[in-house]
Write a structure and sequence with these properties.
By secondary structure, this protein is of the alpha/beta class. It contains 12 helices and 12 strands. The protein folds into 3 domains: 44 residues, 434 Repressor (Amino-terminal Domain) (Orthogonal Bundle); 133 residues, Response regulator (Rossmann fold, 3-Layer(aba) Sandwich), CATH 3.40.50; 141 residues, Rossmann fold, CATH 3.40.50.2300. The protein is 42% helix and 15% strand. The chain is elongated, with a radius of gyration of 26 Å. It holds the Pfam family Peripla_BP_3.
Length: 347
């Protein structure tokens, strides 16, 4: 079993008291320069590092941040985590990453585990199953700093960082309409997620602007956000088998976008000859899809950075913070061949 080197070991080896060694390592003024030099050189020689658990107990700080996301493999979240780490490590914080896999139960367990490990704060993006927020409200009320990003909780008053989901959805839907398409399906995640609500509003607003009535048959929710491929395939089948089927699908999620393309390929539906596609995804390979995918891209890295800066401000504030803000960053629409309805793919 691994046993780290302690101050006691150094004291024993050098014939000093543990308090003298401790003060020498901290650079205490009451310790002679000769003793300090002796202790520091020996500590370096044996590769001594202070015990982070002991330090955290003493300082009542662990210098660690907990991150809750649905899936690290999700392009958006992998980029957001890179942003989180770029700030956290430069500020002396370790990052502990957990995945919910879109499960409420796993989210509760992950959050409770990190709180029990005395993280200094949490960065949270809610799972697609999460409606009950009591596990987060309890910790927030107890004073644990929490910042939400991407999928946020309206009822918990704290800092939040989001993309402009409404505008991203509006832009993608309007692009499809301006391409001559009027029958546009919408494939999205669970109805209570903040991103689902905002993107649905943007989709509906674009339809309304161009005098296209909203068709409830064209709206399909995947409650597990694309994590269960059968669920995505059933939703896509529903749209494709409608008597008055859509000419395009606007997809409101990263994993849902790739899941939708897989489902259409299995069904023998050609994109964009038979149906056009535009979707939210941060995949770096959207241009390499066949056909290249028209996408709404979010500034995930920057969102991660800003959320981390806001959380560290909460952690390090000497006074209770009572004023909070929601920062919204713009999305960007990249138009590619997948949204050119009726056009065959040129191989």
């Amino acid at each position: 079993m691994f046993e780290p080197i302690t101050i006691k070991d150094i004291a024993k080896a050098l014939g000093l008291s543990t308090s003298t060694v401790s003060r020498a390592l901290r650079g205490g003024y009451e310790i002679s320069a000769e003793t300090k030099k002796l202790v520091l050189e020996y500590a370096e020689k044996i590769n001594y590092h202070p015990n982070p658990i002991a330090l955290s107990l003493k300082e009542r700080r662990s210098h660690s941040i907990g991150v809750v996301v649905c899936e690290v493999a999700n392009n958006y979240f992998s980029q957001a985590i890179n942003g989180i780490e770029s700030i956290a490590y430069n500020r002396g914080y370790h990052v502990i990453i957990t995945q919910t896999h879109e499960s409420y139960d796993r989210e509760v367990v992950n959050v409770q585990h990190m709180a029990s490990r005395s993280v200094d704060g949490l960065l949270v993006s809610l799972s697609s199953e999460t409606q009950d927020l009591s596990h987060l409200k309890y910790l927030h009320d107890k004073g644990l700093p929490i910042v939400f990003f991407d999928r946020v909780a309206a009822e918990i008053e704290t800092h939040k960082v989001v993309a402009n989901n409404y505008k991203g959805a509006f832009d993608a839907t309007e692009h499809l309409i301006q391409s001559g398409i009027r029958k546009i399906g919408h494939l999205t995640s669970s109805w209570y997620l903040s991103i689902t609500i905002e993107r649905l509003e943007g989709y509906k607003a674009a339809l309304a602007k161009h005098n296209i009535p909203f068709n409830a048959d064209y709206l399909q929710h995947c409650d597990h956000g694309g994590m269960i491929q059968d669920e995505v395939e059933n939703a896509v089948k529903h749209l494709i088998n409608l008597p008055d089927k859509p000419e395009a699908i606007f997809v409101a999620g990263d994993r849902l976008s790739t899941g939708c393309l897989i489902a259409l390929k299995k069904l023998g539906v050609k994109v964009p000859l038979d149906i056009a596609i535009a979707g939210f995804t941060n995949s770096d390979f959207a241009e390499l899809f066949s056909p290249p995918l028209t996408t709404v891209r979010q500034p995930a890295f920057k969102i991660g950075q800003i959320a981390t800066e806001m959380l560290i401000q909460l952690i390090e504030s000497k006074y209770p913070v009572t004023e909070f803000e929601t920062k919204m960053l713009d999305t960007e629409l990249f138009i590619r061949e997948s949204s050119e309805f009726g056009v065959p793919i040129v191989q």
